[in-house]
Structures are given as structure tokens and as C-alpha cells.
Amino acid sequence: FNLQLWNNYFHLAVAFITQDSLQLENFSHAKYNKIQNKYGDMRCLVGFAIRDMWYKLGQNKICFIPGMVGPILEMTLIPEVELRKATIPIFFDMMLCEYQRTGEFRKFENEIILKLDHEVEGGRGDEHYMQLFESILLECACQYPGIQNLVESFVSLVKGLLEKLLDYRTVMNDESKDNRMSCTVNLL
């Protein structure tokens, strides 16, 4: 197992998926349709490959926690529903791997909270992502009663943080200083 090789693979694949020229939702409707008809959404194909390779790592997955949390988060925040549905479960697998090794998933939790703040501030994330994140992780947790309560607490924490971050991002363009201050206090 060559850790550096796999690390390079995952980082390169995520960099490919997140490059500006592939963010189809930013294009006009006509350009979007033309690209979709000719090439399809390459982000999904590469995202599915990342997912498949992640699950083939076996016991080596732990080597990528917490280092791959940020890149995977960046990938799951792309506003493409099928990509999100396919890749958000990787987070549960990361939690499960760390839990099985240490009895908790504190490294994963700290990293995702840190990276989520950065990504939402950068304009990524939306209500739909928050709902999908919650439903997928809670559904995955149902299959593992020993970790279910921890996952539910984690999801509640992340959902609350994401709500506040999205509110903060919205009111930053608001004229009212009171609204911005109130939102800032809630976030803190």
C-alpha cells in the first residue's frame, strides 16, 4: 500500500471535480445543455470513482482521516444531487473507521467543523445540502446501533452550525447592522 500514491489520487480527483470550468450550474441554460449532451457531467463520473476507490481501501482508510475530510467535503458541496447522494456516505464510513479504531470520531468531527466554516464562507453549501447530509447520515447510523447516538449528536451539531453559517452568509449582504450583529453573535 503506497499512501502517497493514494493521497495524490484522491486530491487530484477532487481538484478535477471542483475546478471552475466544470461547475455547470454557473453556465447559461443553453451552454449547460450543450455540455451535458456532448460530455455529460464528468464530475459525477469522477465522484463515483472516488467513492468506489474509497471503499476498496479496506483497513487503510484510517490513514486518510482526517486528511481527506476537507477534500471530500468540498466534493460533496457541489450542487449536483446524484454526486451528493453518492459521496456523503463516505463521511459515515470515516466516522465508523475512526470509531472502530479509537472508540470515538473526534478527529473527523473537528476537521469537518473547521472545513465546513471555510467552505460555506467561500459560497458553497445550501439548505438542500443540509437536509441531504442529515438524512443520509442518520439513515446510515440506523444500521449501527452502537454508534447511532453519537452520529445523531454529531449531525445535530453540524446541522445547527450549517444553519448559522448559511444565515451569516445571507445577512452579510444585508443593510441592517443589527441583523448582521445578531447573526454573528449566534454563530459565535
What's this model, at a glance?
The protein has 188 residues and is mostly helical. Helices cover 74% and strands 0% of the residues. It is globular and about 50 Å long.
Secondary structure layout:
Layout (H helix, E strand, L loop, with lengths): L2 H16 L10 H11 L2 H14 L13 H8 L4 H7 L1 H14 L3 H16 L5 H15 L3 H27 L5 H11 L1
Helix pairs in contact: 1-3, 1-4, 3-5, 4-7, 7-9, 8-9, 9-10
Question: Which short descriptors sum up this protein?
Answer:
DOCK, globular, single chain
Structure description:
By secondary structure, this protein is mostly helical. Helices cover 74% and strands 0% of the residues. It has one domain. The relative contact order is 0.09. Pfam families: TPR_DOCK. One of its GO terms (molecular function) is guanyl-nucleotide exchange factor activity. One of its GO terms (cellular component) is plasma membrane. This is DOCK2 protein.
Rg, rounded, reads 18 Å
The figure for the number of domains is 1
Unreliable spans are none
Helix content: over 70%
**Strand-and-helix sequence, N→C?**
HHHHHHHHHH
Q: Count every beta strand, where a strand is a DSSP E run of 2 or more residues.
A: 0
N-to-C span:
42 Å
Taken as a percent bin, the fraction of beta residues is under 5%
The chain-level mean pLDDT equals 90
**Main β-sheet description:** none
**Alpha plus pi helix count:** 10
> Any idea what the shape is?
globular
